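Hi there, hope your week has been kind to you so far. Do you reckon you could talk me through the fold, stretch by stretch? Thanks so much in advance, here it is.
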Amino acid sequence: MKRLVMVWIVCCVLGISPWARADRLLDIASIQGVRDNQLVGYGLVMGLDGTGDQTVQTPFTVQSLSDMLARMGVSLPAASLTTTMLKNVAAVMVTADLPAFAQPGQKLDVTVSSIGNAKSLTGGTLVMTPLKGADGNVYAMAQGNLIVGGVGASANGSKVQVNHLTVGRITEGATVERSVPDALTQGSDIRLELKQTDFATATRVVNAINQRFGMPLASAVDGRVIRVTAPMDANGRVDFLGVLQGMEVTPAAESARVIINARTGSVVMNQMVTLEPCAISHGNLTVTIKTTPDVSQPAPLSNGKTKTTATSEVSVQAEPGAVAYLKGGASLADVVHALNSVGATPQDLLSILQAMKSAGALHAELDVI
């Protein structure tokens, strides 16, 4: 019992929660230079069942098809490519992520998205498309049959569609042709980058690394970057990084944040959010506009004209907003219980949280996305 009390006192002095959970260094930091690279390419999808691009609205599809046929030895003017021929072809953008240390011959998954007016990419085949990086070099080649996670049908003006039809995916549809230069083995130092800037967490990571290896190998550059001296040989560096990423470090307490999605009305808050006692009154204002058309017909054989007028009725209804008292909450459960007692809708809650933040009753950062 005395030992437990002593641990509690030491943790309080150091500003560490005794029940805090340690995270692996792999989960809170990344190694500089070890990352994915985005690839993009422009290509054509063939074999569509009359759901491809139309010539008039997408002239770039006609030009791309003409250029592709010319490279294959078929000389055909673009004007001769009619709308009927192009109903089975669609211009697309192809995107993929090139993982770190990818080598030539490895396979990548690609996403194919229509950029024209194609109705569906179902059943299409992507022809050979080079995928380029930000530097303009080709790093992979993509080709294969698309899998579209949707289905649709239409007839006589009626249409039924499930999910999206103009975006497909090809599993292992690209082959790596060029590897990205490895920056990990250059120099004697490596750099760890915390996923969130925090000076306290950076200090704890430095202390944990130096204590684990028994020598001052790590030093903090700033609140996010940590410089670590690593072995020079490739095998020793890989072993060192494996041990480094497996270390457990207790990060500092995160800042209180409330994430608000104004489009969907979603509100997410973390466990550090606290609430001061406050009073809230929130009412709804409803405006209704009703328009009734009035048609005046002329008498028979009067050579008159039909006149149409409209009568509008506007009504405003304001619902009374009762004043609700919210008790202060020191935990997330208390905050959720207090907000639920207001009985507001998710859209109303967005305005209430912003007003509480302005009044100083909500101790958290508001991020509107």
Q: What stands out?
A: Residues 199-213 form the longest helix (15 residues). The chain has three domains: 37-151+161-176, 185-249, 257-295+309-368. Residues 300 and 306 are 11 Å apart (CA to CA).
